[in-house]
Amino acid sequence: MASKMGIKILRILNRLNVGGPTYNVANLSKYLSNQYQTEVLAGYKEPDEASSEYLLQDLDIPYQIVPNMQRAISPVNDYKAYQFIKEKINNYQPTIVHTYHGNVFNGYFSPAKTKIILGIERWLATKSDAIVSI
After folding, report:
1. Second-level CATH architecture of 7-102
2. Where in the chain are the domains?
């Protein structure tokens, strides 16, 4: 439910690399009505990627890096990142969890990994009240 301060939004970015998702998060967080309280979580960018942290910093958007969250699949690191995010959700109790991620259907991972990821996404969809995509 919405808090006395309004609707709580938790935005989760897989990583802070230069691209549309960070622009989206930064601008939506900065310019939404005051009825929306926003917190931002993000993973590590790849070493060869340019950082987009400056977008959040320039707009004075606080954010927190999720330890162990990275682009590469790693069951141990992914579980640790999941536990961190789960704790954040339990403590913050957001009304909306808004994530941005790439398309796993073509080109990012091997066919076997893609099948596993799609299975996980389908299972997670059963745990959601609603899914909104852009």
Report:
1. 3-Layer(aba) Sandwich (3.40)
2. 7-102, 106-134
Distance set, CA 95 to CA 8, 9, 11, 130, 133 (Å): 5, 6, 11, 12, 17
- Phi, psi dihedral angles at 130 (to 5 degrees): -160, 155
What is the C-alpha separation between 134 and 28, in angstroms, rounded?
13
Q: For 93-120, what is each residue's pLDDT tens digit?
A: 999 998 866 666 667 778 888 888 889 8
Low pLDDT (below 50) residues in the chain: 1-3
pLDDT of residue 104: 62
134's tokens: 């852009």
pLDDT score of 102 = 62
Burial of 130 (0-12, 13-18, 19+ CB in 10 A): exposed
Ranges of H-type helices in 1-134: 20-31, 53-58, 75-92, 111-126
Residue 101: per-residue pLDDT: 64
